[in-house]
Amino acid sequence: MQYLHAALTETLRLYPAFPVDTKLCFSDDTLPDGPSVNKGDTVSYLPYAMGRMKFIWGDDAEEYKPERWLDRDGFFRPENPFKFTAFQAGPRICLGKEFAYRQMKIFSAVLLSYFVFKLSDDKKTINYRTMINLHIDGGLHVRVFHR
């Protein structure tokens, strides 16, 4: 399940469920890179864009590459949650993170063992709509076949 965990994490790096996240400052503070924020200020960050930044992930940042999450022995190697922000970080890290991974793994294992999924039109461009969560514009049309 190490590779599956890496594949799911890589998917979340490129396609986070929440592509934009906003926080409200409860007190005056200074951000890690220096800017000051005041009580009542709103601070937003973009996990969708951060997952594609070359200075964070390297020159292959836009490539889907689950191997980036595996060490040389094939074991999953997590990144700092402030770098991989799909589940947030620090005191606000998602309490359901491990449960979410467990659910994704179970569903993936069961569905992929019984079915094959193919795009209905593999030539069609897939566009995303940023809302509260990430949507595929017009849906993702797939065909499902029994194995």
Brief descriptors of the model:
147 residues; alpha+beta; Cytochrome p450; two-stranded antiparallel ribbon; 4 helices; 19% strand
Topology:
Blueprint: H1 2-14, E1 21-24, E2 29-30, E3 36-37, E4 42-45, H2 47-50, H3 54-57, H4 97-114, E5 115-119, E6 128-130, E7 134-136, E8 142-146
Antiparallel strand pairs: 1-4, 2-3, 5-8, 6-7
Summarize the structure in short.
It is built from four helices and eight strands, in the order αββββαααββββ. By secondary structure, the protein is α+β, with helices and mostly antiparallel strands.
Plain-language structure description:
This is Cytochrome P450. Keywords: Heme, Iron, Metal-binding, Oxidoreductase. Heme binds at residue 94. Belongs to the cytochrome P450 family. The structure is a single chain. The chain contains four helices and eight strands. It is an alpha+beta fold and 147 residues long. It has a single domain (2-28, 40-146), classed as Orthogonal Bundle (Cytochrome p450). The strands form four sheets. The protein has a two-stranded antiparallel ribbon with strand order 1-4. A two-stranded antiparallel ribbon has the order 2-3. The two termini are 21 Å apart.
